[in-house]
Specification:
The chain has 128 residues and is mostly beta strands. The chain is built from one helix and eleven strands. Strands 2, 4, 5, 6, 9, 10 and 11 form a seven-stranded mixed beta sheet that branches. It has a four-stranded antiparallel beta sheet with strand order 1-3-8-7, with no helix packed on it. A hairpin with a 4-residue loop joins strand 7 and strand 8.
Length: 128
């Protein structure tokens, strides 16, 4: 059974940084894509960043140049380094993994039922 466990969420001040982690387990074949989504209260879940099996990443325009996604294959752990955090980054952040070649853009636009596995989420709150 695939399991994705996020950690690292916290409350930070505007301009601060956080690093989220997602420990993945329960599979033998690596997923095609792993990524991060977020959902703010009253809003739809949105794709933030994705990395494919070749290590190529894509980002939502709203986080480009501030967030960096990375994958440590030896530890089966996905990371999201978030810098220059703003109040609009406040959300629950979810780790996700998918096992078919759908493309990075499609992954970021996918809805909750279109991705194979999700973590339970970790809360990020940015205050001024």
């Amino acid at each position: 059974q695939v399991r994705l466990v996020e950690s690292g969420g916290a409350s930070v001040q505007v301009g601060g940084s956080l690093r989220l982690s997602c420990a993945a387990s329960g599979y033998s074949a690596s997923p095609y894509y792993m990524g991060w989504f977020r959902q703010a209260p009253g809003k739809e879940r949105e794709g933030v960043a994705v990395i494919d099996g070749y290590g190529v990443a894509s980002y939502a325009d709203s986080v480009k140049d501030r967030f960096t996604i990375s994958l440590d294959n030896a530890k089966n752990t996905l990371y999201l380094q978030m810098n220059s955090l703003q109040p609009e980054d406040t959300a629950m952040y979810y780790c996700a993994a998918h096992w078919s070649p759908i493309g990075r853009t499609w992954f970021l636009r996918a809805g909750p039922k279109q991705i194979n596995y999700w973590g339970q989420g970790t809360q990020v709150t940015v205050s001024s």
